[in-house]
């Protein structure tokens, strides 16, 4: 059963949602969530559409359906950027989906968030508006993710990372304890390997609400 939270009447479109780690965070921040992924996601806890995320976003932008969403979030596949891809194969064997994905998100005409591995910021593909780690949210996991947002990096401050010895690192990703430490208790171990802690997007959702309120005040 999902925990109670105060709904805010807004909906997020979560593209490449996987099993719903970041979707859960947005839900905890008060948003309704619709997830889109090219693969079946039997454990996804919210409204789900199985589709290619690029095609889906282009179609609902053209139809005007995009207007029902407060903002789009996208976790475009990271294999083109991640170091682990280089360890096991070749990054060039995987397309860069961040760049065309960002173009479609911008063309949608509503605010947007892109999440990816830190390497996507190191090579200049993403602007690191926020760099988040589990240790900043008192989670027993070290998992860094970069977020680029259409409103920039303003918002509340977080404490710096604290990589103490008790944290579970990437090497533990196949263990049940790793998924649970992220707060992804509804996922299988395999799903948890690709997931991002809900605490990250719960925090990002709050930053969006703050920024949206500021923008509305300026516009008024």
Folded structure, characterized:
- The chain has 220 residues and is an alpha/beta fold.
- Helix content is 34%, strand content 15%.
- A seven-stranded mixed beta sheet has the order 3-2-1-4-5-7-6, sandwiched between helices.
- Strand 1, helix 1 (21-28) and strand 2 (32-37) form a beta-alpha-beta unit.
- Helix 2 (53-63) runs parallel beside helix 4 (98-107).
- It is globular, with a radius of gyration of 17 Å.
- The protein starts with 10 loop residues before the first strand and ends with a helix.
- The model is unreliable at 81-87 (pLDDT under 50).
CATH-level-2 architecture: 3-Layer(aba) Sandwich
Q: Note the run of SSEs as H and E.
A: EHEEHEHHEHEEHHH
Report strand %: 5-15%
Structural class based on helices, strands and sheet pairing:
alpha/beta
Order of strands in the sheet with the most strands?
3-2-1-4-5-7-6
Helix count equals 8
Main sheet characteristics: 7 strands, mixed
As residue ranges, the low-confidence spans are 81-87
CATH topology: Rossmann fold
Q: Helical residue percent?
A: 25-40%
Please provide the count of β strands.
7
Domain count: 1
Q: What is the CATH domain class?
A: Alpha Beta
Tell me the radius of gyration: 17 Å
Question: What's the average pLDDT?
Answer: 89
CATH superfamily: Vaccinia Virus protein VP39
Distance between the termini: 40 Å
What's the short story on this structure?
The protein is an alpha/beta fold and 220 residues long. 34% of the residues lie in helices and 15% in strands.
